[in-house]
Amino acid sequence: MRRTIATLALLASCELKGDGVPAEVVREVPPFIALEVFDDFEVEVTVRPELDPEADVTLRVTGEANALDRLFTEVHGEGVLSIAVNPNLLQELKLKPTVTLEVPALRSVFATDRTMVRIIGASEALAIEAELKSTVEATGLIEIAADVVARDASHVELAGAGPEVRISVEDMADVNASRLVVDSAHVTVEGASATVTVCTSAAAPEIVGEAAQVTVACEM
Questions:
Q1: Quick one: which of 128, 124, 77 has its CA closest to 105?
Q2: Residues with Cβ < 8 Å from 215, sequence gap 6 or more?
Q3: pLDDT tens for each residue of 192-217
């Protein structure tokens, strides 16, 4: 279910068509530990634990020159960064907007509306939820305990190592964790077209649902 983006300013509708001219803006936002991405954005997050957890986070936002102010990047609630095209304004964009950033830690990611999210270097606990044809790639995971939910023809790919992964797939979603070496895996499959690949170093994965849709394979 699509989540509501909080704390948006109430603005009058004004239709805008992107001019196709690429541009970039640098923004500063307060610290956060969770990320939610909407509206066909492409986002790359690098996790660097040595960064100051109390410092503001720098975002590099690219998009069309006449639409940069329509690209919403705000922190709200309990440390959640929302990235979206401002839903209070009408627009027709030609270029895919992007955001790149570095943070000291990241605990959860929600991706929807055909977004692409790349996460590099997360550690400890990471929750991923992907829907509506979105893609999440998380690589360089360290000592990770991952919890993944994928639905609606979305795709999640994981690489690294950790003690545990929990995966739930529905509809036509696909989760490829063949490059994530874990001690244990717990997989729930719902939907005849959903698929999961896991790599376990100890016990075989625990599977709820159709076992034939779960593959155990390790790619180094």
A1: 124
A2: 178, 195, 196, 197, 198
A3: 999 999 999 888 999 999 999 999 99
Write down the residue that tokens 């063949």 correspond to. Answer: 178
Question: Cα separation of 164 and 200, whole Å?
Answer: 9
With a CB cutoff of 8 Å and minimum separation 6, the contacts of 107 are 33, 34, 125, 126, 127
Check whether 73 has a pLDDT greater than 50: yes
Which fold does the domain 22-106 belong to in CATH?
Pectate Lyase C-like (2.160.20)
Entry pTM: 0.92
Domain range summary for the chain, segments of one domain joined by +: 22-106, 108-220
Distance of CA 95 to the CA centre of its chain: 20
Here the tokens at position 174 are: 């696909």
Amino acid at position 151, single letter: R
Distance (Å) of CA 180 to CA 125, 131, 157, 172, 209: 14, 21, 9, 21, 22
Terminal CA-CA length for the chain: 35
Backbone angles phi, psi at 70, to 5 degrees: -90, -10
Distances (CA, A) of 91 to 3, 22, 68, 153, 195: 20, 16, 11, 26, 36
Residue 70, number of CB atoms within 10 A of its CB: 22
